[in-house]
Amino acid sequence: MAETKEKKADKVVKAPKADKETKVEKVEEKKAEVVVKKVKKAKRTVEKVKVYVVSTFNNTKITITDMDGNVLAWSSCGTVGFKGTKKSTAYAATKAAEDVLAKAAKYGVKEGLIYVRGLGQGRQAAVKGLRAAGLNVSMLSDITPVPHGGVRVKKPRKV
Fold first, then answer.
1. Is 63 inside a domain boundary?
2. Is residue 18 one of the residues assigned to a domain?
3. Which candidate among 25, 48, 134, 150 keeps its CA 20 to 30 Å from the CA of 8?
4. Do 140 and 116 meet the contact criterion of CB atoms below 8 Å apart?
5. In sequence order, what are the beta bridge partners of 139?
6. Where are the beta strands (DSSP E) in the chain?
7. What pTM value is reported for the model?
């Protein structure tokens, strides 16, 4: 009786092992098929862009977007490597403009609409830097926010 139980146990054990081996082989085949499939990303070209120049008293930031508003490249005086009070200079704004146009060159940028915001020293310098780097400027617009009427005047002091 002991022999028959062992034989039955052997038979039961051998059958599942064979099934497991075949299942493992099928899984490996599926993995190999998935690895082979790769999708290449299409190269994007954008000839006409919008350029936003935000010039504050401490820094100048320049962002290049496509016509839908998706950001292609950006740079600032701090990103280029200037620190402290040197970030607010016109020279730093020119370097930031050259840097952002170099980053956007891989998209084939040729023409741009420039929107300038703020009162910093880098306003005109950034525009000059963009022109010098090879961007054809088709429009230049100032979008600095201006208060209409302002806030209410403080009441006079009673002494």
1. yes
2. no
3. 25
4. yes
5. 113
6. 48-55, 60-65, 71-76, 111-118, 136-142
7. 0.70
Gyration radius from the chain CA atoms: 33
Q: How far apart are CA 117 and CA 62, in angstroms?
A: 10
| CB-based burial label for 91 (10 Å; 0-12, 13-18, 19+) | middle
Which domain, by its residues, includes 123? Answer: 48-142
Q: How many domains does the chain have?
A: 1
Mean pLDDT of the chain, nearest integer: 85
CATH at 120: 3.30.420.80
Residue 13 lies in a domain: no
Buried (b) or exposed (e) across 118-139, using 16+ Cβ within 10 A? bebbbbebbbebbeebebeeee
What percent of the chain is predicted at pLDDT more than 90? 69
DSSP-assigned beta bridge partners for residue 62: 53, 75
8: its two tokens: 């039955």
Q: For residue range 58-82, list pLDDT tens digits in order.
A: 999 999 999 999 999 999 999 999 9
Q: Which residue(s) pair with 53 in the sheet?
A: 62, 116
Asked if the structure places residue 59 within a domain, the reply is yes
